[in-house]
Amino acid sequence: MIYITRRERFNAAHRLFKKAYSDEKNLEVFGKCSNPNWHGHNYELFVTVKGDVDPETGFLVNLKALSRLIREKVIDKIDHKNINLEVDFMQGKMASTENLAIGIWNELENDIAQLGASLHCIKIYESENNFVEYFG
Amino acid sequence: MIYITRRERFNAAHRLFKKAYSDEKNLEVFGKCSNPNWHGHNYELFVTVKGDVDPETGFLVNLKALSRLIREKVIDKIDHKNINLEVDFMQGKMASTENLAIGIWNELENDIAQLGASLHCIKIYESENNFVEYFG
Amino acid sequence: MIYITRRERFNAAHRLFKKAYSDEKNLEVFGKCSNPNWHGHNYELFVTVKGDVDPETGFLVNLKALSRLIREKVIDKIDHKNINLEVDFMQGKMASTENLAIGIWNELENDIAQLGASLHCIKIYESENNFVEYFG
Amino acid sequence: MIYITRRERFNAAHRLFKKAYSDEKNLEVFGKCSNPNWHGHNYELFVTVKGDVDPETGFLVNLKALSRLIREKVIDKIDHKNINLEVDFMQGKMASTENLAIGIWNELENDIAQLGASLHCIKIYESENNFVEYFG
Amino acid sequence: MIYITRRERFNAAHRLFKKAYSDEKNLEVFGKCSNPNWHGHNYELFVTVKGDVDPETGFLVNLKALSRLIREKVIDKIDHKNINLEVDFMQGKMASTENLAIGIWNELENDIAQLGASLHCIKIYESENNFVEYFG
Amino acid sequence: MIYITRRERFNAAHRLFKKAYSDEKNLEVFGKCSNPNWHGHNYELFVTVKGDVDPETGFLVNLKALSRLIREKVIDKIDHKNINLEVDFMQGKMASTENLAIGIWNELENDIAQLGASLHCIKIYESENNFVEYFG
Description:
Number of helices of chain A: 4
Strand order of the largest sheet of chain A: 3-1-2-4-5
Oligomer: homohexamer
Strand content of chain A: 25-35%
Distance between the termini of chain A: 18 Å
């Protein structure tokens, strides 16, 4: 069993808030992350997959195919986008990094199985001081 | 003459577009940075000041005072904000990194002189692959 | 189950030595880390907690509260301090990174439970080439 | 149980290819990594060992001894070398990062046991976007 | 006058040696960088251009066009290549980082002028501990 | 004219204070950096030299010789030391990063001339948020 990780990056706007709350209540609960005019981040995404090394190629998985898959299923949908308004797999959810990690896991899990590996971890940096990890 | 640099960070949403253009025209000129629903970044700001070392303290400038000044004049206005809609010193300008560097220079130049140093450079990273420098 | 990590930093002086040894013997066993006049580091601390996402907020834990807790229980006690002489939770122990990780775990474990999460890992970088991880 | 990680670096040339294939076939399967004239990388190697803290020293393991061991068994053999042609523990294998991690594990496992710790993980960055982990 | 920098990366093999020398003499003069079987690096390239901000766009230069130019004139020629054997603008020169910086300057200078900016600096990291800057 | 930079690192303890002041007065002027029990840092030192490329070697300067010089004149004197008490070129001066940069410049300037290059800049990071540059 070996693990390989691919890093991708995306830039997006988001806001943490509940529609049922007033702006004041959102500010109280979510702080400056609730700004109604949005703010944004350079997110760093680390996708770790696991499996056996193919003795023919020396690879666990074709990294170009893995990168292409992450771009199609995640980056193209979220990069330079508004997470709350425009990202299909985040609709109806709080745009927190925790939910982003779970949402990206669900986007990728089945397709990675088709590459001959298993998804092991989704790790997302929202800033240099905070990151989330989800193992399914 | 010695140079000292203080790094600060801010997260903000922005959009590159001209009001006179249609969304299609903005997309043609500014690419995905023109997304009408905004996107955002973790910006890194480096403020470099220059001057002589005070023989009493061994300092060019009190770094805490410099950091406080940058926070008051820049970070508090722009962090977790929408650069196009909410940042006073960016009103009426394209929200490009180039204009951001010039705008932050103008915000800080006089106050840094009052700390007993001269502003030398504003450097801003918009992403790990792009940064702008402005020397006045 | 999801994991979130908060990074904090502190600068401190320390020395590796045994009182029962002479300076020569300490030098032999601990090398230049035994310098009787101290040396120091910029330590990076990563605190990882785990638990379930609160469906109301989308958070595992309030990151500001976590950061405040780490500051109160760890950073305020150790930043710009001498680890051997001034840090209560390191008294009577070798000031190694290993013991620092265990000491910080013990400082934080109960209070993190009160935030509604479980402490998962304390990771400390002493330099860019060395880090320690402790999982309790 | 505590974990300590030592980072070392090496620069090397390599090529991904099968002798049984033509250059065209290798290009098709391995892309530009199959360049017959070689290419190369700055590899970053992270060796993680685990065990108990020695109450005498506060150490899991003497980091200088660990670093010396990694240099003797790995870095001296691979730094500024051609992985395909010159590295004994990679002969007869694809020069992939996956195989490199497994090869380095095998080089180090027994000797680390003699330092009084257990090898836990070999992690290798081939570029800032890709890394492999092997846990034995 | 404002300055903008674009980072690109490439991986390549190279060797420092003089054909007129024996392998022993090359080893004496160039150390392990003279390995006849090559070694390699992950190079980081920073291209800084300068000029005036276009009031229409807020840009000094279209960064996508700059990135495309660097890829066409430099990255496509050198990435996953052997610098000594395959890179046209390095033929007949020592494959040192110094000469690489000068060679890349000459590749880019005229074309950057056609983008409406002036080339200011070529900076190349060969490793995390060494970099070269060339200002023409 | 070309510029090459070598990075070296050192860990040291220091304190900012004036002997003529009481501990209270020092705390007022220098903040927590005045702690009488010392604190410390992982310093990063960047030494930039300039000159012409030697057409024989393709080098501005032999980087190994430059590194050896920095180690002999600076790192061996300051690494794992107390800057206030043990570093000869800092005696009688405030142990600020500004003075450290000037002190290291004076240590290196003449010897770098003997390597066939000119010292251009001493840059020192005291933390990830602060660095000083001195150009003589």
